[in-house]
Amino acid sequence: MKTGIIDSDAEKIKVNSWNEWDPLRRVMVGRAKGTMVQAPEPAIIRDWPNEGFPKGSYGLVPDELVDAADEQLDNLVKILEKKGVKVDRPSDFDFAQEVSTPDWNQKSMFGCMPPRDVLAVVGNEILEATMSQRSRWHEYLCYRPLIINYFKNDSKMKWEAAPKPRLSDESFNKNFWEKYEKLSNEEKLIKVRENDLILTDEEPLFDAADISRFGKDLFVQLSLVTNKLGYKWIKNHFKDHRVHAVTFDNYYPQHIDATFVPLKPGMVLHCGERTADPELIRYFEKNDWQIIKAEKPSKTYKTLPRMSFCSPWLSMNLLSIDQNTIVVEESEKMQIEQLDKLGFNVVPVPFWDVAPFGGGLHCATVDIEREGEMEDYFP
Ligand code: ABU
Questions:
Q1: Which residue out of 116, 307, 317 has the highest number of ligand 1 atoms within 8 Å of its CB and is therefore the one to mutate?
Q2: Over 80: is that where the pLDDT of 5 sits?
Q3: Which pLDDT score, from 0 to 100, does residue 2 have?
Q4: With 128 labelled, which of 28, 210, 237, 353 sits at a CA distance of 20 to 30 A?
């Protein structure tokens, strides 16, 4: 089985990453191959009749989309390696398998994209998220060979898995989607702010990509995939951190990394279309952080790639190589120009073909090692 780790560098592994901007030394990059259009389940609706996947159907994502995405992922790997970053890739896995627990049976899994959804690296710890979709319950398995290898070769690494959820029918609000679609935008936002969405608070549920790391401070977005008990679990788990629950005015919140993205100490990029909780803004301003309103994306909802379930705001889904160097999607000209003017050295890479697999440059990667230690940026 290929894990992407060669024996000669195994002893150099050091899991260590406290924020999104310190110099990147080692990173995991996902793969598109094997990804499925998920079979129906309570948490999500997939309905692509023009692509041969009407509501209720499922199956392998078409080869041409997979090949295009894997080409862009492989290209990202080459660029990162040229910059001296070690890159690890997850193992092949059969995501077409039917999976089950004592409570349910699910006709397909999803894929090994995006790894950021599943794994949170906080300091020396790799935390496997609960996930909140049945098709993603077993997804950690494709990262396990890498995690085990890190664990064997790093004497200080901590490895945790959040409590495996049951994801029984009680974890989901019945008929949520039908009811939600009938609400006005303002009614939707009331529910978003209260986190009264598809997930109940039957058990802790969260995706790792709803956690944003700013050293001692962790910001956890309550969303369609992260509930209040999930936040409580994260808060109680990371005892040395200040852990904040946050919401943004986004009708379909899912993952914080296209909404509120740290660029370096004292500077955060914010999707202006998704107003933040005023308390969050006060916290940043009180600590002299600059909140930069991200430039408009190159795409609209109508011009997104086929079968993408992400928003155009993947334009700000960035990967920092260090405090001055940021990898950005190459067609996001306005975003690139804005970062350039702010003094960043921007590395443009083509990446929109990866969107049908669940994300952009930040989603598709998990930083395993960055230089630096835990610091307090909100003293
Ligand atoms: N997984 C990140 C997607 C976020 C967004 O579409 O806005």
A1: 317
A2: no
A3: 47
A4: 353
Q: How large is the ipTM?
A: 0.97
- Write the secondary structure of the chain as one string of H (helix), E (strand) and C (coil): CCCCCCHHHHCCCCCEECECCCCEEEEEECCCCCCEECCCECCECCCEHHHCECCCCCEECCHHHHHHHHHHHHHHHHHHHHCCCEEECCCCCCCCCCEECCCCEECCCCCCCCHHHHEEEEECEEEECCCCCHHHCCHHHHCHHHHHHHHHHCCCCEEEECCCCCCCHHHECCCHHHHHHCCCHHHHHHHHHHCCCCECCCCCCCCHHHEEEEECEEEEECCCCCCHHHHHHHHHHCCCCEEEEECECCCCCCCHHHCEEEEECCEEEECCCCCECHHHHHHHHHCCCEEEECCCCCCCHHHCCCCCCCCHHHHHCCEEEECCEEEEECCCHHHHHHHHHCCCEEEEECCHHHHHHCCCCCCCEEEEEECCCCCECCC
Tens digit of each residue's pLDDT (9 = 90 or more) over 151-171? 999 999 999 999 999 999 999
Closest atom of ligand 1 to 114 CA is: 1
Instruction: For 130-152, write each residue's pLDDT tens digit.
Output: 999 999 999 999 999 999 999 99
Query: Ligand 1: which atom is nearest the Cα of residue 311?
Result: 6
**How remote is the CA of residue 359 from the centroid of ligand 1, in Å?**
6
Q: How confident is the model at residue 1 (pLDDT cuts 50, 70, 90)?
A: very low
Q: Among the atoms of ligand 1, which is closest to the Cα of residue 209? A: 1
Task: Give distance in angstroms: CA of 362 to centre of ligand 1.
Answer: 10
Q: Under CATH, which architecture does the 14-370 domain have?
A: 5-stranded Propeller (3.75)
- Ligand 1 pocket, residues with Cβ under 6 angstroms: 209, 254-255, 257-258, 310-311, 313, 358-359, 363
pLDDT of residue 12: 82
